[in-house]
């Protein structure tokens, strides 16, 4: 047997040397992103085969492994680029990576307060900050999840409890623009597919609350049990904000759980404009947020704010398990494992705590406010392009658009041509069955130049083809 390159318990110098090579690699990566294309070509077959190889018995040299990772990074979308306006970009703040490093290097378990009260206090400080930001009552708690999909599942299961054990006749209200994670959550929660009632939308993609009221009323008459209404505060496709105040009124009137999916749009609440657009969100029973979108963190970090934390413990309380007995503490800190599905998880809070404390909250407010302004700028630039179809001023930072008279194949071709040019990226969605294009501004590196470059690119491609005519059909 060959000598192992690295024992599990390494001496300080070996660990430091390893740390240095990774640090050098990351610095080189950050430098390279300045000139990287927003989208890399597909990986070569032999590279992919190499990446799929299993681990070796005897270990490998760090340089070899880092070269491997470098290969992996030269494919797909370059999420570090400010020119990406496809899907919902996040950014990946370098300081969040350092927070994650600190959290995992120090190896604290934050599921139970007694086991790491100090770490849990840090985790809880973020929870409290979020609850205060959204003017939640003192009974509220914010729980970290891996993302909005997981947070939505928690909210739906907590809301479903009001139906008791037999919930086949339960109904949840939402629009066709709601994120598919709600449907997934309903399926996992054991609700039948008819439990999701699709409320009609206005021409700009918001929930039609009059129609919702009529549906709820009718379902009740039919003996079904409406229990939740799910609004979206910034739809992923259109960036539309459902009328939160009116939906809160409906929820009050009919005794429904008022859920707000603010995965994309929620953190605009940190700005004055955003607070206006999201008015009514503070009346929610649950709010879903994604720091890995609106606070520019790397993937894997969502939040669920629940106005009445006891609705979560009713479902998820875990500290009663025999192996966890005698772990109570008199400290006024939560046992987070009682508020969600995960028992053992990472000290996720530090990933957000470090950037917030290091940069200061005002930096995030300023960048988000800038994004709202950039979206208005993009809207104005697009409105000048002949043949451009728009859906009114953006409420937040997603601008949906279309070209008059173009077929779906032509629109999809436009997205590909923009990508092939390699200066900026947008993506598609659907609204009322129709393919649309959309630009989402939510990367801390995105500038006015990126936005202008997108407008210029669109102008050039559209005028060379002609709106109302066909590029492919000739
Ligand atoms: C991204 C998104 C989700 C899903 O969030 P994940 O963090 O990817 O699980 C849900 N709702 C909306 C509005 C989103 O934009």
From TrEMBL:
Pfam families: Pyridoxal_deC (PF00282). The keyword Lyase applies. Keywords: Decarboxylase, Lyase, Pyridoxal phosphate. Its cofactor is pyridoxal 5'-phosphate. The keyword Transport does not apply. It comes from the Bacteria. SUPFAM superfamilies: PLP-dependent transferases. Belongs to the group II decarboxylase family. This is Pyridoxal phosphate-dependent decarboxylase family protein. It comes from Salininema proteolyticum.
């Amino acid at each position: 047997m060959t000598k192992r390159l690295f024992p599990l318990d390494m001496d300080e110098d070996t660990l430091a040397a390893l740390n240095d090579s990774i640090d050098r690699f990351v610095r080189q990566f950050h430098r390279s992103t300045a000139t990287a294309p927003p989208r890399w070509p597909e990986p070569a077959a032999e590279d992919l085969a190499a990446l799929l190889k299993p681990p070796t018995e005897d270990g490998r040299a760090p340089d070899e492994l880092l070269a491997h990772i470098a290969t992996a990074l030269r494919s797909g979308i370059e999420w570090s680029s400010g020119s990406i306006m496809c899907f919902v970009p996040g950014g990946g703040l370098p300081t969040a990576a350092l927070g994650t490093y600190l959290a995992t290097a120090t190896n604290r378990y934050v599921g139970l307060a007694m086991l790491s009260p100090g770490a849990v206090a840090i985790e809880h400080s973020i929870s409290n900050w979020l609850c205060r930001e959204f003017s939640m009552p003192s009974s509220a708690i914010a729980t970290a999840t891996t993302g909005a999909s997981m947070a939505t599942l928690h909210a739906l299961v907590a809301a479903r409890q009001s139906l008791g054990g037999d919930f086949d006749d339960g109904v949840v209200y939402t629009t066709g623009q709601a994120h598919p994670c709600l449907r997934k959550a309903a399926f996992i929660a054991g609700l039948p597919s008819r439990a999701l009632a699709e409320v009609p939308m206005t021409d700009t993609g918001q929930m039609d609350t009059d129609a919702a009221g009529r549906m709820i009323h009718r379902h009740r008459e039919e003996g079904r049990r409406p229990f939740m209404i799910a609004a979206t505060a910034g739809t992923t496709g259109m960036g539309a904000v459902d009328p939160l105040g009116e939906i809160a009124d409906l929820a009050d009137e009919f005794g429904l759980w008022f859920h707000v999916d603010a995965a994309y749009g929620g953190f605009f609440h940190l700005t004055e404009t955003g607070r206006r657009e999201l008015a009514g969100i503070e009346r929610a029973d649950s709010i879903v947020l994604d720091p890995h979108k609106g606070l520019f963190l790397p993937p894997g970090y969502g939040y669920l704010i629940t106005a009445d934390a006891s609705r979560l413990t009713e479902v998820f309380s875990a500290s009663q398990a025999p192996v966890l007995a005698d772990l109570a503490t008199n400290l006024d800190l939560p046992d987070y494992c009682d508020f969600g599905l995960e028992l053992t998880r990472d000290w996720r809070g530090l990933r957000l705590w470090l950037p917030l404390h290091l940069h200061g909250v005002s930096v995030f407010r300023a960048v988000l406010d800038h994004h709202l302004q950039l979206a208005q700028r993009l809207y104005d630039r697009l409105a000048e392009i002949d043949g451009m179809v728009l859906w009114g001023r953006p409420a937040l930072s997603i601008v949906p658009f279309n070209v008059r008279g173009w077929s779906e194949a032509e629109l999809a071709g436009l997205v590909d041509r923009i990508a092939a040019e390699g200066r900026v990226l947008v993506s598609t969605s659907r609204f009322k069955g129709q393919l649309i294009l959309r630009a989402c501004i939510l990367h801390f590196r995105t500038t006015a130049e990126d936005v202008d470059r997108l407008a210029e690119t669109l102008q050039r491609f559209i005028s060379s083809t002609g709106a109302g005519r066909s590029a492919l059909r000739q």
